[in-house]
Design a protein that fits this description.
The protein is of the alpha+beta class. The strands form eight sheets. Strands 6-5-9-3-2-12-15-14 form an eight-stranded mixed beta sheet, with no helix packed on it. Helix 4 (about 340-360) crosses helix 9 (about 570-595). The chain is globular, with a radius of gyration of 28 Å. The chain binds O-methyl-L-tyrosine and zinc ion. Zinc ion binds near residues 301, 305 and 327.
Length: about 900
Amino acid sequence: MTRQEPKTVRREDYRPPAYRIETVELEFDLEPETTRVRSRLDLRAAGAGSREPLVLDGESLELLSLSLDGRKLGSDDYALEDDKLTIPAPPSAFVLEIETAIHPAANTQLSGLYVSNDVFCTQCEAEGFRRITYFLDRPDVMTTYRTTIRADRRKYPVLLSNGNLVEEGELDGGRHFAVWHDPFPKPSYLFALVAGDLACNEDRFTTRSGRDVRLRIFVEHGKEGRTAYAMDSLKRAMRWDEERFGLEYDLDLFNIVAVSDFNMGAMENKSLNVFNDKYILADPATATDSDYAGIETVVAHEYFHNWTGNRITCRDWFQLSLKEGLTVFRDQEFSSDMRSRPVKRIQDVRTLRAHQFPEDAGPLAHPVRPDSYIEINNFYTATVYEKGAEVIGMLQTVLGRDGFREGMDLYVERHDGQAVTCDDFVAAMADANGAELEQFKLWYSQAGTPEVEVSGQYDADAGAYELTVAQSCPPTPGQPEKKPMHIPLAVGLLDGQGRDIRLRPEGEPESAVAATRVLPVRLPRQTFRFENVPEPRALSVNRGFSAPVNVKIAQSGAERAFLMAHDSDPFARWEAGQQFATDLLLRRVAEIQRGGNGSGATPFDPAFTEAVARILRDETLEKAFAAEAIALPGEDYLAERMTVIDVEAIHAAREALRREVARSLEGELMRVYEANRGQGGFSPDAAQAGRRALRNAVLAYLARLADEPEIRRLVIEQYRGADNMTDRMAALRLLVDIDGPERQEALDDFYERFRDNALVIDKWLALQAVSSLPNTLARVTELLRHPAFSLEKPNKVRALIGSFTSGNPLRYHAADGSGYTFHADRTLELDPLNPQVAARLLAPLGRWRRFDEGRQEKMKAQLERILAQPKLSRDVYEIASKSLG
Ligand code: 0A1
Ligand code: ZN
């Protein structure tokens, strides 16, 4: 087979645009089958000297007409290729008018203009605008938009675009129109248009300088009652950004539209955010506490982009983390202020370790600021987003909260209205603080998770403590050798009573004494010495997860239990428990691998169970924290810690430890379960959510004793009696792993109750896909034909296929390779419909190097089968070919 190798785009090839667009006027005549788009561009050559051809991007467009300064161009005047339109020698300033036809109803890729449940909407990031009209579709071309929308009045009464509504009225033939003007210059990826028959929830917000902003959330009719939490989140986010960063909203109108078909979570288009309705709609009967938390975060994230992304945008797509890492950091800070900061930190680290660490250790590893890509849509990754946010968080740790704020102020002052780079951001931080951040910038350019090996030594005679820190970073694709990084490593020492020892580094004044020290680790190997230290009992490292690294430290179970009980840093307390459990579980895995099923295995260290019991009894702990602290590390995390991953042994070991804890602490667990029954009405607030989290974490332990009829009854009763989705889902999650008649009864009941709510049915699909029962793949395959499933709806695909391939390692990695064949089959079916989503789901196959030889061969064979497909998208081609390496 011959294939035209897709082109690689390189960061070093960046050139500024040859033309500027002064203004753009767009006119849409909306029809689902064929929509006509007229565009009027006011163009100007950017450089003074020799003039270059004008090359406009375009994809899947029908060109209807083209004229320059009012003169119609003939086919000799321009060159039309698959992905571009070239005008070889235009004048230095001119007006170009372009008319194109596009086909929104047939747009299953959901990029450009498409139709979702009879609503027209757009998705232009990263390169979707070129699927609407020919344009300089790159983020460093910023211009002002005036947009006219015409459509059937009855079917599309609501017509929206960016900015302010300047005119609207009636047209012949039952049509109407609206004209929108956005005064803020923006790149094309932030353009948006929506037209449909939508209901709206309207509210107001007064900014601190007195601007009265009209807030509207548009949804399909009948769903407006489920938008209250999103609206409340929006208002809280607007206030928070004023208070924390001094950033105010800048228009009189802010619109959100929720649609049911969307490739990602949501999109920050200027004053017209478009959302996957999963991140807008909630009520107690249908949304879990984590759904509520997700809404709060995503609504805030998109709103925060107005400054970090829209007013200051990216020069080119390699700088994506400039807006994404920073905006994730901002939404994490916001959620930390709204809820429990330690619990938020724990959850963010769990996510980072589950998604970003494996990415950074695999064939798709790339720096936070990548050097090359084939398809930019493949780079909306955990590395760009979540590791990018960690990098920003480290800057705040290094510069201090106030220093960071000064850096932000300078960044906004310098770059408002510009398209800039990650270097510009770091320069603002450095200049505002007189700081040296050259070595720190390696966090943007070097991929891979650094390893930090720590050992401590106490010199009783001198009363001094010496900490030796060695760093290294594993090779990643294209980066065999790494330079030492600047790692801000927060450490503390605990005395025999579990109190923090005040630490003063050698040679520094008494005023530098603190309980937690942030060590500036910069060398491959470095020793830090602390004077006047009484004998320590335990060392606490990477407090608050101050750096996204893997820490290696030799610690006994007793030390870990001590830290679990006493560390003043709640994150470190949680981490001590995770590492304690990890040690026990990996030891058990090794035993299972040596000796069969592990039934004659060495018992787990009882100190762990005791530590869990202590958490359950500690009334001073936040309940949400206690829930996190008793939850074992996930199968993914444990897998990451093994050289050759054994999914069956990991599953067995984890089940065994859960059963062991449940058996030893049954009475205690029962007590906590009963003590945390909800009374009174439901509220999604952090306190109530924490109580539910703890109770459900406890129930998950108890469910390991499901041979006891009493325990089965408990789970079923919770399922039946639940007055909220969190409790109902938690019980159903346990039931799907328990073979028996109750399982199907509950699943059928759930389906009947919620069959009219697409988002809840996604949960139903996902739960069946993550079941540990052996027939799961057969059931998932059956569900592909269920009326509730559709390959054209990304939420359905993620719920059923994604949950199986990335949320069920035990069944996905079945030794016979059936999971892999299933995955490749679905990829090949989905690729022609929606390449973005197909490519995003592919990562698990790329982890083949980490498995035994039999699985390796089977995984590779499926990747090869995908690559052999002649008409593969760039998206899937890039992931599959890089995965094979
Ligand atoms: N900028 C959005 C994420 C996003 C990216 C691409 C999309 O379509 C391909 C859609 C949304 C955010 O960070 O929320
Ligand atoms: Zn974002």
